[in-house]
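job 3f2a | input accepted
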Amino acid sequence: MNLPPLPAAASSAEPLVAPPPVPDPGPREILKTLYARFPVFRAGGPLAIGIDKAVRAEFPDLPRKALRIALAIHTHSNRYLRNMAKAGQRLDLQGAPAGEITDSQRQYAAERLQERLKKQAETAASALPARQRRLKVTSALAPPVPAAPTPRRKAEPPPQKPESDAAASSTLSLTEKLALLSEKFSRK
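job 3f2a | predicted structure (188 res):
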């Protein structure tokens, strides 16, 4: 039985190995790409409904789940909610108007933002007493701080050196002043 000869690539000493799979980008990487490519994302402007389809048309290889998570991160940010509460138009990827924002959508964004800011303020306020307690405990365990030294009398200023007669005299010519300075600095 005669077998056909093996192709040149298969007969070489190195076996064929498939390249390692490239990992799918995560939501944060997708957001970085969207911020770099589209000004409407950088500005946090209100996005058109169905913007995910437009993004998928631009980037067909993006995983759906990661894209949806990235868009959720973006649209739930304080900046986006603030812009949504103030704006009147939704924008497409190029920044062109792509639909109106209804009053109920504007109100929903404002309420979400207010709730979030209120919750952040409460969290910060509740953390303050705990921080103060930690400081009290830490200061109780710390060695005592020595008392401040008693103020001393101010030292007398050092006596001023009398100026040389030649330097004090304003009648010296420029050449004479330069000669005196060169003597002064050459004596080191």
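job 3f2a | Residues 119 and 125 are 10 Å apart (CA to CA).
job 3f2a | closed
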